[in-house]
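Q: I'm teaching a short session on how sequence maps to structure, and I want students to see two examples side by side rather than one. Could you give me a first protein with its sequence written out and its structure tokens following it? Keep the formatting plain so it prints cleanly on a handout.
A: Of course. Example one:
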Amino acid sequence: MAKAAGYDLDSLCAQLNTTSLSGGSSENKDKLTQLPQRRSDSSSELDPELPPAQPANPLSLFTPEQIAAMTPEQLAKVLEKLEQDQVEEETEELKAFGYELFAGEPTSFEPNLNIPVPASYVIGPGDTFEIQLFGKTSQQLNLSVDRNGQLSLGELGPISVAGLTFEEARQLLKSRFKQQMIGVEASITLGELRSIQVFVLGEAYRPGSYTVSSMSTITNALFVSGGINHIGSLRKIQLKRQGKVVTQLDLYDLLLRGDTRDDERLLPGDVIYIPPVGTTVAVDGAVTRPAIYELLNETSVKQVVAMAGGLKPTAYRLEAQITRIDDNGFTTSLAVSDPAQSTVKVKTGDQLSVQERVDVKRGVVKLRGHVYRPKSVAWQRGMRVSDLVPSLDVLKSLPQLSSAILVRERLPLRTLSIETVNLAKVLQNKGSQSDKVLEPQDELIVLGFTEEREENLADLIEALEKQAYAGQSAKIASVSGLVRFPGIYPLGENMTARELIELAGGLAESAYGLNAEVTRISMQDPEQTEVEHHFIDLTKTDSRFVLQSRDVLNVRQRPEYREFATVEVKGEVKFPGIYRIKKGETLKDLMTRVGGFTDFAHIEASLFTRSELKEREEKQLRQLREKLKADIANSQLEQSNVGKNTNLSSLEQLSENLDSTEALGRLVIDMKSVLSGKSEDVILKDGDSLVVPAFRQEVSVVGEVQYPTSHLYDPYLNFEEYIERSGGETDKADDERIYIVKADGSVVLPYKSGWVNAIGVEIEPGDTIVVPLDVNATNDLALWTQVSQIIYQLALGAAAITRL
């Protein structure tokens, strides 16, 4: 399909090879083929010619039309190539050693001209002499060597110094002054030095002719030219003078040993020639400097390892591996014993890999878990558990002594097996059968009665799950229900239900200790899986019901068990306080226990609250608050749209009152009827509260009256007369919906009570008369109906609070 659409798939795949999925230009790739390098994250910054990073999705290299034209096989081929390139890109490659010395653009790296000129410096045209004459004559001379190599000394005549060393020229000049100027001494130094022209050729970063200081050496010239490119040799840099090789510089001497003896000073016309790189060997792994090294006189593995800085302390010193391409072009591997001392010969293109030592301790026994100092100690024949735990001082507080876990490797497959150890018996009788003999690689895990138990067992549970295989479940079991620490535990060989319960910290206080239930998945039939339930008698010490992998042991709660429930009694009773109650106990029973009421008790005003009712009221109050605020906002918006100016201040005030109202969870009861048996008794629950207030002589009037207050009880007054004593109703009052909250919390609506004379409703001490807001006169919106319900709830809450 792709070819039919005019696309050359082979060309597209070839495009991948030259795209920076694997980084760099094609030119750089040719170089990397000859001398592989590890890519640096900053390479794109150092080399502006590198292409920008490619998008994360490799298919973005193709157009949608190209992708659509591919067959599934062709697309798979492209994706395979892309994945291969991505893996190669992510693989960290080795750098060639030493080339980072010249990384970046060329630099002058001029020699230090402030140091004394060495006596061996060769004088040439352009050099300047500074001559200080003193004695019979005092004079300062600054003389330059002319193109003929001479210094003009005035009356003393010219003198040839070119080609002489500085020391030779200095002695010659002193001799001339001494002979021809009697009584005059001369101090001779070199001033400004000449520049010389040298050539840097071969595999230089920028080969060519360069002007440098006459004090420059080979390395100075290399820096000026940008250094050596990645196919140039660092070890056979030649200094040629008049067609002959004067010296050969090995930069490894400078880099590895700081030896500059062969870094010769340059003369005019010198040629620095950099030949191509020679034999290279890659060294990777646990060596000090993993890199690709150029060989000169090194021929053996130990010399290459020494060049790489030697082995790391973490290296596996007994063996290394050489990867080599044989004469037939196939890759082969060669094992090398003791690479630091091996005389095995290396060849160009070899890759020497030194492995890290395995971070696994052998021949040791370990202690961890609920201990102060986890440790690994060398195993010795005859070592026992008591050698790891000699006393309780080793353990943290609250250790579980009855069941520690001993993890042991079973040969030849090195699978893990589990045993339990009773540390209490071990410490009481060291050397006994309970004090198990340890084997190499044993691990003792001490558990504690703390929350870190799951963390201490996590690695072991994971290891047991990993060693499971098809047809063989992991050696773990679960404990649920009323044990101290439910969870997943390692399953020991022939472990019973009682042992697993002990491992889980034992039974909880509320556990049913007679039997437990084991749920088991049976896979005996290869065609199906069955679930079995077994009840285990926990009272029989000889019970040998052996648990199997993945069993779930469930310990049930004791029948009719409940923790102590409490109720609180306050106020005018003989013995107020907090009382524990049993299941089914009633309010009448409780009043007997508290000794009855005092002489000052207002029995009718008793306040009985319940926790679950309070939670329910809190939820209702939250919903009412949200509804009220939303309706107020909607009403304000409607008034703005239609130009009305209805006063919402009353409703907003009610909203604020509702926000400050707390739920009580009151259960209205007729205490006298309950105690006399005329009303059904109240079954008590945990968290119930009874408040018996002192007798009250007042009647309260609240709501839309001129002066809400409380009045001294008068048996001859009705509710309207109490309202008149509070100044009468306001203009906003709804006189048809007046109601009375009795002292016991019940509500009476006088005009709906069915009595012939509503005004004759009996008002009693502790009652509250509520005059509600006339919401219909304020606004005909449905909002106000909701507000009236809120007012009703608030009035009930206010009346209840007043009774406290």
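Q: Perfect. Now a second example for contrast.
A: Example two:
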Amino acid sequence: MAPWCYCFLCLLIRNLSGTPSNSSGESRNPWGPAPVAPGEVVETAGGVCKFSGQRLSWWQAQESCEQQFGHLALQPPDGVLASRLRDLVWVGQREVPLRRPPQRRARTTAMLVFGEKTADRAARLRSPLPELAALTACAHVQWDCASPDPAALFSVAAPALPNALQLRAFAEPGGVVRAALVVRGHHAPFLAAFRADGRWHHVCATWEQRGGRWALFSDGRRRAGARGLGAGHPVPSGSILVLGQDQDSLGGGFSARDAFSGNLTDFHLWARALSPAQLHQAQACAPPPEGLLFRWDPGALDIAPSLLPMVWVRLLCPVPSEECPTWNPAPRSEGSELCLEPQLFLCCYRTETYHRLQDAQSWPGQDVISRVNALANDIVLLPDPLSEDHGTLSPAEASSFLGLLEHVLAMEMAPLGPAALLAVVRFLKRVVALGAGDPELLLTGPWEQLSQRVVSVASLVLEEQVADAWLSIREVVGGPMTLVASVQRLAPLLSTTMTSEQPRMRIQHRHAGLEVRSLRLREASTRGCFFTMPGGRPEGPGHIHIPAGEARRLLGKGLSGVTAIHSWFTSRVFQHTLEGLDLQPQAPASSEEANRVQRFLSTQVGSAIISSEVWDVTGEVSIAVTFHLQHQAQTFRHKLVEPVCAFWNYSISPYTGGAWATTGCSVAALYPDSTACFCNHSTSFAVLLQIYEVQRGPEEESLLRTLSFVGCGVSFCALTTTFLLFVAAGIPKSERTTVHKNLTFSLACAEGFLMTSEWAKANEVACVAVTVAMHFLFLAAFSWMLVEGLLLWRKVVAVSMHPGPGMRLYHATGWGVPVGIVAVTLAMLPRDYVAPGHCWLNVHTYAIWAFVGPVLFVLTANTCILARVVMVTVSSTRRRARMLNPQPCLQEQIWTQIWATVKPVLVLLPVLGLTWLVGILVHLSPAWAYAAVGLNSIQMKRRRLREVKATQLEAQGEGTPRAVVPGPDLALEPQEGVPLLTLPHSIARR
């Protein structure tokens, strides 16, 4: 093909594509990456993200992701995902404030108080109105529900047209307020506008001459609207605006029958029809300035004397203009949009979390899910936690499903599996989010029954036998603190059921409870407000207190009443599942304890979980609280326990549901079994117990280390001298002397390595070698101590004249068994054999039992042997005494028996290694350590002199040889948090 054909073909393709090469649409060409499809999962550098395809507000998107155990993307998409996105997406926030639905701000303004219906109460705009082809009128209204007759909220009258325009309404007792727009005498039907609940409502009416289009709005929502009302005719110029009355004549002709009864403020009038978005701005106390004829200004009104003086009111305005972060893929830039605007979003997960959720359908507990769904004849619990909810859920359906779920969980005998627990947690999240979706549901839902069942289900899944299931899903849902958040979110739903006759609602079930209380600040400004848990009391543990000063502070802000929300959780599941979570160690209370602390071990939940929140109609109000909680029974032997006042911060770690923090909290008072705390904010609290391992102070450690090293050195010299005497003195060979020599040699070598262990820890290879050597040699010493006991049994108790088992068996026991133990330990625990920072066995693994186990066996066996030998010795002494003196006095008999008991014990304790038992007591008090070191050092020196003397006598033939084997006074340094253990090794043989 000719070259010009190729050029023509390329030009044809470009023309058909309709996209120049330099246009912004180049990224959308058919050869680029395909757009991400709804429901598609894409891996990113930070984890896994799922594209929903739905358009929701920021809060709805966040709620949707949380129900699927994910979160909004916390950073702009990158890599392949960024190139495949075509539209704006929401970006998440780590901090809590944006995680809540839109809050409302407050401002103080004057209001007109229309009391009883009379003909003399009205407010008239001084300036006449121009001709109006369209208009919008808005006001904040508090309707008097006791007056059922129709009334004029405002009216506009022209010189020749008294009923030019007016807004009329009436209240149905216990129902709704119905409103109707009247234009040029034409009356629209009365339609429901807002609840007749005596609260403030923002009411707007719009009208246009063209087509006669009109609409009624309340609280930002369109309630009614139609066409054909007063079409083609404007409101004449020179009209008069009157608030609170119907005009039968221009600016007058008022009647009590049509008078408004209630409160009115923040009235605005525009010469155009506002859009729904602009009406949201007006509701938010930010009226659009375009076309504004009248901004609320009481000074521009002629107000009837009966309405004076005006009353100031704290006006509450939502904030729809709040913006939330977004990411735009076209310019690849971050920005922000109104949080209420529906946008696309991504639900993201950590990779390991997403894979665990994918495997959830194979987890135990599927039978509970199937049983609940079968009873409900619907999909209540989702087996797949990553799937989206099917259809909508009404409050009545949710309450019914919760009843079924409560029944199944109460009858379930086996512990709940992780799959069922995950499904239950997700369903509870969905239920408590019902009120956030549609505000109208708050007026109709069976919230009290629903709340009772939510608390019951939450309590049932907090039973202690479910702790293992919580541990299995902790990385996915953040542990049981997710239930605390869910129960707290019930409060806005439950508060809708409270009345002036019932200002308090309390729900509890075993391990969980919730109380919502309407709090009058003037009453609380004297003594504060106490909330008590079951079994708690205001003057003792088990309460939370809002100080009177906080109530006075809120009064100073113009608040008269708030809603106090408290919940409590007493399950031990929190201790099992939240144990060991990272929290910066706090300094011990006293300097003496601080000097004695060696190492921080862990943090444990040491009390019930108690939550406190205070809300006014604008949202949550942060206040300071004090609380006093009982310590839950736990045993920490020989540990320092330091109570810490903490709160759960959901924004610290959004991936895991939060973490404990202590900012703003402090200990107010410490009691033996409880702690009183102060926190300068309100949230979920607990008393945490920080566990420390207590050791001697630095001065005591230094002194004991010095004494141990000196005693070890002297003992090493004594053992070496004794061994040389055995070798050089020409003592006749026998089983007894052979056992003594092996025992002396093994102990001397072990102590030699012990003295070098402090320097060897600087080199990893040398440290391992020294640890292996000490492990082997000390085991060998104990093995030879066991041989000493067996030999003593054969010579004293059994009194056998037949040859013994022979030295081969003794050598196999003394040297072969330790070799086997050390070899097996090294093979099974090659990485956990040596303690970090010390040349000794790791006491936090099973390696330490390769030493402690054999030692306990030897000490137990030799203790039994010693007891039997003492019995034989006492019996023999009694017989000998009767032979020498057939009729001894009582005092002589007692003394003989005592000496017959004490003498063999003193002689045989060292030879059988039982003096090592002294080292078990040294962790109880420093006095035991000093006593063990000092006493055994003196004993060692005395026995060394006896050994030297006995050897000299035997060499000179001047007496029966008495071989006494001195032993070291050995103190082991603290190994990886184990208390200092002083182990006497003095061994004697008579």
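Q: What should students look for in example two?
A: Point them to this: Confidence is low (pLDDT under 50) at residues 1-30, 587-597, 937-990. Also worth mentioning: DSSP finds 24 helices and 39 strands in the chain.
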